[in-house]
Specification:
The chain has about 575 residues and is α+β, with helices and mostly antiparallel strands. It folds into two domains: about 1-40, no CATH class; about 65-210 and about 220-285 and about 370-520, Creatine Kinase, Chain A, domain 2. Helix content is about 40%, strand content about 15%. The chain has 17 helices and 18 strands. It has helices at about 45-55, 120-135, 165-180, 200-210, 215-235, 235-240, 300-310, 315-320, 355-365, 385-400, 410-425, 440-465, 470-480, 485-500, 500-520, 525-550, 555-560, and strands at about 1-5, 15-20, 25-30, 35-40, 65-75, 100, 110, 140, 190-195, 245-250, 260-265, 265-270, 320-325, 325, 345-350, 370-375, 430-435, 440. The strands form five sheets. Strands 5, 6, 7, 8, 9, 15 and 16 form a seven-stranded antiparallel β-sheet that branches. Strands 1-2-3-4 form a four-stranded antiparallel β-sheet. Strands 10-12-11 form a three-stranded antiparallel β-sheet, covered by helices on one side. The longest helix is centred in the C-terminal third of the chain and has 24 residues, at about 525-550. It is globular and about 60 Å long. The chain starts with a strand and ends with a helix. Mean pLDDT is about 90; it is low at about 1-40.
Length: about 575
């Protein structure tokens, strides 16, 4: 049985014969000039080869991947200070509401959409959640930027509360531990998480094309990990394109020794910065530098996380775990739980009730990836838009199809350097980044990547009979050609033109966003009713969880960490 594929990128013809007895493949390549090479198929890891095989086998294979958004926003008072009020009851239970919860602080809301095949549906969902929330905030506002409003140290950042159940108390203790370990102000930094999975029909088709005989779960997990590794290599591009935190309120670093220029009395900034949120001022801090989690296999990844949550850390032992009858942290290990390990990208699987993330991954392999390095778009009322989602989808597919060898220590050092350099100076003319073949300018490398992403975007558009994905990729190319088009440059321009401190300028934007949602037509009655029902039922679910607790918190934590294999 012979399959014929023509590569649109190179014009090569491949004749591939699969042997039923061994699953091996014989490939004959007809090259320009009539030269033929015959032998075992190399199962090429080259992007262009893989893309061409998919394009010829099924032009619809890349469209329709599932997309979901998690978007964080601080609740602030009308004068721009962090809200100290409890989570609004009209928004339901932060423990069990499927759409509206909290992150670190009682004031840090997190909006969660379901996963959709269409970016339009995801965008509509996140906008609807905003509209419903604003209708129940009273005089409070949603802070529109990733770097926080004026904060007054640890004492001014209230921990998120989840009720009296064991699981709810555990969530608050975990956050208390984060505060002791990293400081509460750092935990008020907000962002957008983009969850993505390729369409289900893609995987068996791709597995057949590559002649891979592993189990479906093993094949899918291995290629998702390839995507994750490449995101570590190329993720600096996301900071350049979508970074929107080149400046911050001086109060954020009030207790730190920070060598950063002042834009004005209330504002510190990096002139060419893109995402201070993702720099060593934010999540990419030195505290976790000693934790090395391999991305070269699912087993290494899960075992690395499990080791970190079982390995004592002397600095955290000095904090104490249970002091005067109150938990300060869940434990004194390098990580309290898996989610404490911060990474710009995470391989994920939906966990069952009470199941740890590593156990879920071991059970069924990787189901989707979570991208965590997108700043809030301060110029968009919902903090994210379809252009971002469409580009991210095409970019992640590129990361999956491109060659992704294992990461060694040198690779990881280069990736960390490139992220930090882009975060703090990504728009600097002539900026160079590091890759294994030598230094390269950010501009040149970005254009190389975008050339391939453009092909993915075009194939998705061909399926959807449109041009939206190509338009998104074109916009990103313009941002590379014209750095002033990036959100980070536009934010600095706004601060400069308005001659305002960061906190005042962002507060004005928050008011504009509130007015935008207030001016929209009311939510459709069915949608409004669904949000109201979820709020009521989430409170009832929390009450049932609290009523059903039959063991002490100490026993609950012991069972969580020691009672099940992970």
């Amino acid at each position: 049985m012979f399959d014929f594929f023509r590569t649109g990128a190179t014009g090569l013809w491949y004749k591939c014969q699969r042997r039923a007895d061994s699953g091996a493949a014989i490939m004959e390549q007809s090259l320009p000039g009539g030269l033929k090479v015959r032998g075992k198929a190399p199962l090429s890891t080259d992007f262009k080869t893989r893309f061409a095989l998919i394009e010829s086998a099924d032009r619809h294979a890349l469209a329709g991947g599932r997309k979901g958004i998690e978007k964080e926003s601080l609740r602030v008072t009308d004068d721009g200070r962090l809200a100290l009020s409890p989570h609004p009851r009209a928004l339901g239970s932060a423990l069990t509401n499927r759409y509206i919860t909290t992150d670190f602080s009682e004031a840090l809301l997190e909006f969660v959409t379901p996963a959709y095949a269409s970016s339009w549906e995801a965008q509509q969902a996140i906008c609807d959640i905003h509209q419903f929330t604003y209708a129940n905030l009273g005089d409070e506002l949603l802070w529109p930027a990733s770097m926080p409003c004026s904060v007054s140290g640890d004492e001014g950042v209230p921990l998120a509360q989840y009720g009296t159940s064991n699981v709810g108390r555990m969530k608050t203790i975990y956050r208390r531990g984060l505060g002791y370990r990293y400081g509460r102000p750092m935990q008020t930094i907000a962002g957008v998480h983009f969850n993505y999975s390729l369409p289900a029909p893609f995987w068996p088709m791709y597995k057949e094309l590559l002649g891979d005989e592993r189990s479906d779960d093993a094949f899918r997990s291995d290629h998702y990990l390839g995507l994750v590794r490449n995101f570590r290599r190329f993720g600096w591009l996301v900071l350049y394109l979508f970074g929107a935190s080149p400046a911050l309120c001086r109060s954020f670093m009030a207790h730190g020794d920070l060598d950063m220029p002042s834009l004005n009395d209330g504002t510190l900034y990096e002139p060419y910065g893109t995402s201070l949120r993702m720099s060593d001022l934010g999540y990419s801090n030195k505290t976790q530098a000693s934790i090395h989690i391999s991305l070269n296999s699912l087993e290494e990844y899960t075992e690395g996380l499990n080791a970190a949550i079982r390995t004592p850390e002397p600095d955290y032992e000095r904090i104490g775990v249970k002091v005067d009858g109150e938990y300060r942290q869940l434990n004194a290990n390098k990580l309290q739980i898996e989610n404490e390990y911060y990474s710009a990208v995470r391989p994920k699987r939906v966990a069952r009730s009470g199941e740890r993330p590593t156990a879920a991954l071991k059970r069924g392999g990787i189901e989707y990836v979570e991208i965590r390095s997108i700043d809030l778009n301060v110029f968009d009322p919902a903090g994210v838009n379809q252009t971002t989602m469409r580009f991210m989808e095409a970019f992640l597919i590129y990361c999956l199809l491109a060659d992704s060898p294992p990461l060694d220590d040198a690779d990881l050092l280069r990736a960390a350097h490139n992220q930090l350099t882009t975060a703090k100076a990504g728009r600097k003319p002539g900026l160079t980044l590091r890759r294994s073949s030598g230094d390269v300018t950010l501009e040149h490398w970005a254009r190389e990547i975008l050339d391939d992403v453009q092909q993915v975007a075009g194939l998705i558009d061909a399926t959807e009979n449109g041009s939206d994905y190509a338009a998104a990729a074109d916009e990103m190319r313009r941002r590379v050609d014209e750095p002033d088009r990036t959100p980070s440059a536009r934010l600095l321009e706004g601060l400069t033109e308005e001659r305002q401190a960061y906190s005042h300028w962002a507060l004005d934007m928050a008011r504009c966003h509130r007015d935008y949602f207030a001016a929209l037509k009311p939510l459709p009655s069915a949608r409004q009713a669904a949000f109201d029902q979820e709020s009521r039922e989430s409170i009832e679910r929390q009450q049932r969880i609290e009523a059903e607790d039959a063991i002490s918190l100490d026993d609950y934590l012991d069972r969580y960490f020691n009672g099940r294999e992970s």
